[in-house]
Write a structure and sequence with these properties.
With 379 residues, the protein is an alpha+beta fold. Helix content is 54%, strand content 12%. β4 (124-139) and β5 form a beta hairpin. α10 (264-275) packs antiparallel against α11 (279-294), α12 packs antiparallel against α13 (313-326) and α14 (331-343) runs antiparallel to α15 (347-360). The two termini are 35 Å apart. Keywords: Repeat, Signal, TPR repeat.
Length: 379
C-alpha cells in the first residue's frame, strides 16, 4: 500500500501532477469559507517536526557517538528500521512525535519523523516522490489513489549527495525494496511535501465525514504550495460533495491550468458538466482529455511499464518506442527499451538503448547505467 492519499468520490479522479505556471485566463478561486465552520483541534504546521523527550535523547546520543555525518546517517537509518521496531502502517497521517511514539506510520508520517530527527542531527534531507503506478483503495465510501514518498539523507544541509566527493548518502524507504525497485523518483521541496501532508489529512477527514476539517486542511495545503494541483482537485471534490457545484467547477477549471499533461482535473470537470446535461461543453473538455493523453509520452511509458510487469515484453517494447518517439530526451524511456529488448533476446539493441540511457542520465544515475552496460557486455 501507498500513503499519499488522493480522494476520488464516485469516479472523480484526483492525481498528483507536475505544476506549471497557471493560465492568466483562469483566476485563482476563492475559498468558500461561508459554507464551512471553523475547524478545531487541528494539526498546526509548527507541530509537524516537533520532537518529544525520547527523540531528543536519541539525537543527543547520536550527536555524541556520531563523529561524522556518515555515522549519524547510519545510526538514524538503523533507528527507523524494522530491527528497532518501526513498522509501515498505511493508517492515519501523523506528526513526527506521534509516529515515534507509535513506532508505526504510513510513508508520509515516517518521512516527516525521519526528517525531524535528521535536521536535529545536522543532516540534509531530500524528499522524493516515487513514480510508481498509484494503488487504488476504497474507504468509507470514498475511492482513493495512493502514491508513495521516501526520503534521502545527505551529509550536510543544502548539498546534494553527488556534489560531496567520497561521502555517503542513504535513501530510506518504508516499503519493501521489491515494491519500489526500478521506479524513478522526482525530488520535491519541503513546502510541497508539507502541502501533501495536509492533503493526506484532508482526505482522511473526508473519509471520516468531517467536511469542515477537510476544508481547513486543504486551505493549509494550498497555503504551503499554491500550485499543488492535487490540492485544488481535492478542493473541487469536497465542494461537489457538499453540493457547491459552481464553486467546484471554478476550482476544477483552475486545477486544470496547473496540471500540465495530467488530464484528471479536466476529467473531473467533464463529469460535472455531464451530470448537469451540458453535453456540448462536455464534448469540448473530453476532446482535450483525449488529446492530452495521446500527446503525453508518460502515458505510453506507463503503459509500457504495466505491460513489462505482466511479462508482455513485445507490447512493452511497442509502448516504450512510442514514448521515445514523443520525448527521446528521457533516459528512463531508453532504459525501458533496453530492458524490453533484453527480455526478447535482442542483445545488441538492448546495449544501444542502454548506452542512450547512460548518455542522457543525470550524474548520479550514470554509474548505475555503466555497471549495467558492463554486465550486459559480459552476458
Amino acid at each position: 500500500m501507498r500513503c499519499l492519499k488522493h480522494v476520488l468520490p464516485a469516479l472523480l479522479l484526483l492525481l498528483t501532477a507536475c505544476a506549471q505556471s497557471p493560465s492568466r485566463n483562469v483566476p485563482v478561486p476563492e475559498f468558500a469559507n461561508e459554507y464551512f465552520a471553523p475547524a478545531t483541534d487541528v494539526v498546526k504546521p509548527e507541530q509537524l517536526f516537533q520532537l518529544d523527550s525520547e527523540m531528543k535523547a536519541f539525537v543527543s546520543r547520536a550527536s555524541r557517538h556520531g563523529n561524522s555525518a556518515s555515522v549519524r546517517i547510519r545510526m538514524l537509518a538503523e533507528l527507523v528500521s524494522l530491527k528497532h521496531g518501526f513498522e509501515y502502517d498505511n493508517g492515519a497521517t501523523l506528526v513526527a512525535r506521534d509516529t515515534y511514539a507509535r513506532r508505526a506510520g504510513n510513508c508520509m508520517s515516517l518521512v516527516v519523523m525521519t526528517a525531524a530527527l535528521a535536521r536535529e542531527l545536522g543532516l540534509g534531507v531530500e524528499y522524493q516522490m516515487v513514480k510508481s503506478p498509484p494503488v487504488w483503495d476504497r474507504q468509507g465510501g470514498v475511492v482513493l489513489l495512493n502514491d508513495h514518498i521516501n526520503i534521502r539523507l545527505t551529509p550536510k544541509i543544502g548539498t546534494s549527495a553527488w556534489e560531496i566527493s567520497g561521502s555517503v548518502s542513504t535513501t530510506i524507504d518504508f516499503l519493501p525494496t521489491y515494491q519500489i525497485r526500478g521506479y524513478r523518483t522526482d525530488r520535491i521541496g519541503e513546502s510541497e511535501m508539507i502541502a501533501r501532508f495536509y492533503n493526506n489529512l484532508a482526505a482522511e477527514a473526508m473519509i471520516d465525514g468531517a467536511p469542515d476539517l477537510a476544508h481547513h486542511y486543504l486551505k493549509q495545503a494550498l497555503t504551503q504550495d499554491p500550485e499543488l494541483s492535487a490540492g485544488w482537485n481535492a478542493l473541487g471534490v469536497l465542494y461537489r460533495r457538499q453540493g457547491l457545484e459552481s464553486q467546484a467547477e471554478r476550482v476544477y477549471q483552475y486545477a486544470a491550468t496547473l496540471a500540465g499533461d495530467d488530464s484528471h482535473a479536466l476529467h473531473n470537470l467533464a463529469l460535472l458538466l455531464a451530470s448537469q446535461g451540458r453535453l456540448t461543453e462536455w464534448a469540448q473538455v473530453h476532446k482535450k482529455i483525449e488529446l492530452a493523453r495521446l500527446n503525453n509520452p508518460f502515458y505510453y511509458y506507463d503503459m509500457a511499464e504495466l505491460a513489462y510487469q505482466r511479462g508482455d515484453f513485445s507490447k512493452a517494447l511497442s509502448q516504450y518506442r512510442k514514448a521515445v518517439k514523443l520525448a527521446d530526451y528521457h533516459h528512463e524511456f531508453h532504459f525501458g527499451l533496453s530492458r524490453a529488448y533484453f527480455q526478447l533476446g535482442q542483445l545488441n539493441d538492448s546495449e544501444d538503448a542502454l548506452q542512450a540511457a547512460a548518455r542522457l542520465a543525470p550524474v548520479d544515475e550514470k554509474q548505475r547505467y555503466q555497471l549495467k552496460l558492463r554486465a550486459l557486455r559480459y552476458h
